[in-house]
Automatic annotation (TrEMBL):
Protein name per its UniProtKB record: HIT family protein
Domain HIT: 19-127
Superkingdom as given in the UniProt entry: Bacteria
Organism annotation: Natronomicrosphaera hydrolytica
PROSITE patterns, sorted: HIT_1, HIT_2
PANTHER family, per the entry: ADENOSINE 5'-MONOPHOSPHORAMIDASE HNT1, HIT FAMILY PROTEIN 1
Residue span of motif Histidine triad motif: 111-115
Matching Gene3D superfamilies: HIT-like (3.30.428.10)
Pfam families: HIT
């Protein structure tokens, strides 16, 4: 995406009431750790552990499925470097990458954001995973329906 087009889309896709849009616009200060024309990464003000950072698109999209693939890729392009830098600086060997969509999925700010959360014995994301079981019939049914929606039956 050309720089002028990206800048135009950011201005067009902005929610004046969105705290992340206001942070991206420089109206609210943050501890910026990375920025380019389309993406901003900054330290979370309510961290689960030292170094907890967020990656956001500068353009406003509430959920991941609303975003153009190119913009999602731009957000994730910095993720490996940022995760490595956070790991090195904090001395942790483990981290979570988390992205929530919708209130039921614990999305607190209705602007797409990716968390990078260092994990140590002293802090980080505490997670309970109550895994179910995918049966053959349900697996076939879901695969057919999802692949069909993607245009790959």
């Amino acid at each position: 995406m050309r720089k002028d087009r990206a800048m135009g889309e950011q201005q067009q896709r902005r929610d004046a009431d969105c705290i992340f849009c206001r942070i991206a616009a420089g109206e609210i200060p943050c501890h910026r750790v990375y920025e380019d024309d389309e993406v901003l990464a900054f330290l979370d003000v309510g961290p689960l552990s030292a170094g907890h950072a967020l990656i956001i698109p500068k353009a406003h999209y509430a959920t991941l499925d609303e975003m153009p693939g190119e913009l999602a890729a731009a957000c994730m392009k910095i993720a490996p470097r940022l995760a490595g830098a956070i790991r090195d600086v904090t001395g942790t060997s483990a981290y979570n990458v988390l992205q929530n969509n919708g209130e039921l999925a614990h999305q607190a700010v209705k602007h797409v954001h990716f968390h990078i959360i260092p994990k140590s014995a002293d802090g980080g994301l505490d997670l309970t995973w109550d895994a179910g079981q995918l049966g053959d019939e349900m697996g076939r049914d879901l695969r057919t329906k999802i692949a069909g929606r993607l245009g790959r039956a």
